[in-house]
């Protein structure tokens, strides 16, 4: 068979063009496949630390943010609240916060960092069956009794926690509310989810 009349330059061009198109197609298919292995922005954000500005949080106020799909409460307690926490020890399961529901820097009466003990950061999920307790800062409401000094009441099964998230005796919840890792970026901004390795 003779190669007369065969245009070798055209053959080389077609071979090169086909190779380029094939390579582009392979890369085009590989990019979405490789990208699908990376976590989505939503998944990254779900576990990412959350900044909370507390500059406008007044005494007695609560702000709720979401961290890792859970509600996290930041509460600024009043001076009266702080005094009331001192007289509850005999009514609480773990008054000194010795159990492991908090980082070591929050293992104290106030369950907060010592330099900012009027502000407490708590995961807003009951340690009994995962309901979300209600913030009940009022004193001695009829449904909670004359000794109630403010705190959290879980409507699902009646668990009660004080304003430091410590669980009362005789309720279904076995342990205190969880204190997540957190740190202050400034006097008015808290970063929830990181503590600078000081847990």
Structural features, described:
With 199 residues, this protein is α+β, with helices and mostly antiparallel strands. It has 2 domains: 1-38; 45-192, Rieske Iron-sulfur Protein (3-layer Sandwich). 22% of the residues lie in helices and 19% in strands. It has 3 helices and 9 strands. It has a 3-stranded antiparallel sheet, with no helix packed on it. The protein has a 3-stranded antiparallel sheet with strand order 2-3-4, with no helix packed on it. The longest helix has 30 residues, at 8-37. The radius of gyration is 29 Å and the shape is elongated.
The CATH topology annotation of the largest domain reads as: Rieske Iron-sulfur Protein
- The CATH level-2 architecture of the largest domain is identified as 3-layer Sandwich
Major sheet details: 3 strands, antiparallel
Silhouette: elongated
CATH superfamily of the largest domain: Rieske [2Fe-2S] iron-sulphur domain
Which class best fits the helix and strand makeup? alpha+beta
* Percentage of residues assigned to helices: 10-25%
Task: Give the topology, please.
Elements: H1 8-37, H2 41-47, E1 50-53, E2 62-67, E3 70-76, H3 79-85, E4 119-123, E5 134-136, E6 151-153, E7 160-162, E8 182-184, E9 189-192
Antiparallel strand pairs: 1-9, 2-3, 3-4, 5-6, 6-7, 8-9
List the main descriptive attributes of the protein structure presented here:
199 residues, alpha+beta, Rieske Iron-sulfur Protein, 2 domains, three-stranded antiparallel beta sheet, 3 helices, 22% helix
């Amino acid at each position: 068979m003779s190669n007369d009349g065969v245009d070798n330059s055209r053959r080389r061009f077609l071979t090169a063009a086909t190779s380029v198109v094939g390579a582009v197609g392979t890369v085009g298919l590989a990019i979405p496949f490789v990208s699908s292995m990376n976590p989505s922005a939503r998944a990254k954000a779900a576990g990412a630390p959350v900044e909370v500005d507390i500059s406008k949080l007044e005494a007695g106020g609560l702000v709720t943010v979401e961290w890792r799909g859970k509600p996290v409460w930041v509460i600024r307690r009043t001076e009266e609240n702080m005094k009331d926490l001192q007289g509850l020890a005999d009514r609480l399961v773990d008054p000194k916060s010795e159990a492991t529901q908090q980082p070591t820097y929050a293992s104290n009466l106030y369950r907060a960092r010592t330099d900012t003990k009027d502000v407490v950061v708590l995961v807003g999920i009951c340690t009994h069956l995962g309901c979300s307790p209600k913030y009940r800062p009022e004193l001695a409401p009829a449904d909670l009794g004359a000794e109630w000094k403010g705190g959290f009441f879980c409507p699902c099964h009646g668990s009660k926690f004080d304003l430091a998230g410590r669980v009362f005796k005789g309720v279904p919840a076995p342990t205190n509310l969880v204190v997540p890792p957190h740190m202050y970026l400034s006097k008015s901004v808290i970063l929830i989810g990181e503590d600078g390795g000081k847990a």
